[in-house]
Design brief:
By secondary structure, the protein is α+β, with helices and mostly antiparallel strands. The chain contains four helices and six strands; from the N terminus they run H-H-E-E-H-E-E-E-E-H.
């Protein structure tokens, strides 16, 4: 196996563990294994700083959508970065962004760019369709519809 193929395989394994073990199986205890202590996630507003804040960030989604599942749609590798296009779906069981539990299904999509150094994620940039997610939970009529898998 070439050096590039070996590195790509290692990054793919990290991404698979993030989506399968942390997001889908909700094993937040392994975040410290995959993310460096100085990890920073740029969310478009307030950055998420370090594994402890990342754990809270993910737990917020899991609490509101306890059955949430994510699937990787595309992966692109470039240098020390990986780009992941993903989709997620679940059912709102608790308050989320001020919206009381609706017991409605939702789906949303997003893209995350992750930088890897020494076998761990060190930096990330995420963009997710939270408007689409919120529209799935509200009674807004005639604007947009929620597309479920």
């Amino acid at each position: 196996m070439s050096i590039l193929a070996n590195r790509t395989h290692g990054v793919r394994e990290l991404v698979d563990r993030l989506f399968n073990e942390i997001l889908n199986q909700q094993r937040l205890g392994i975040i410290d294994e995959l993310f460096a202590g100085n990890f920073i996630l740029y969310t478009g507003h307030q950055p998420v700083m370090g594994p402890a804040e990342l754990r809270k960030f993910i737990a917020h989604f899991i609490q509101a959508f306890p059955d949430i599942q994510h699937a990787i749609e595309d992966l692109v590798f470039e240098g020390d970065k990986v780009v992941v296009r993903w989709c997620g779906h679940g059912t709102q069981r608790e308050t989320f962004f001020g919206i009381d539990a609706t017991n409605r299904p939702m789906s949303y999509t997003g893209i995350i760019v992750l930088r890897v150094h020494d076998g761990r994620f060190v930096e990330g940039w995420i963009s997710a369709d939270l408007l689409g997610l919120l529209l799935c939970l509200t009674d807004v009529q005639g604007v947009l519809t929620c597309s479920l898998p």
